[in-house]
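[Backbone geometry]
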Amino acid sequence: MCQQPSTRPQWQAENFYKIGKLGKPHGVKGEISFLFDDDIFDRTDADFLALEVDGLLVPFFFEEYRFKGSETALVKFVNIDTQERAKELTGCNVFFPRQAADNAEGELSWAAIVGFTVKDVATQKTLGTILGVDDTTVNTLFEVDTNAAQPLLLPASYDLIASIDTQKREITMHIPDGILELD
């Protein structure tokens, strides 16, 4: 289980979003596998990742990292120098600061918009909050919490997005006809 390192600052969870999870140690010098959904840490000048330790977000600074595949990297954090220390981090959820992602060049990743609210461009009504993004099928879907028994599934398509306000954490979308009437 993740053990909290020496005193380090903590932040509010809403200022971060989950980008992956740490796997097993790799070798004996503190390297650990990182299974990521978003490579934003490589596309920005990130010095650290936030790990969820005992329910708190704690910064862990990079010493180095290298890609092992399209969704896996081997990470070496500062002051994590043994296999035993790396093993303490196994299973920790990994988060990235929203502010750093907002300042990144290009489009936001799907992972970055989890927690954003969705508004219908036609009615200007708020539909709910994005709980997750289902990309297990050919058609990627937003899972939107509308306070109904089941999440509303909306097509996650750049063509349907009218605007994204990262400050308000809000996406305005063109909702396809009839989709709100589906059970």
The mean pLDDT is 84. The first strand starts at residue 16 and ends at 26. Helices lie at 40-43, 83-87, 98-102. The two ends are 40 Å apart (CA to CA).
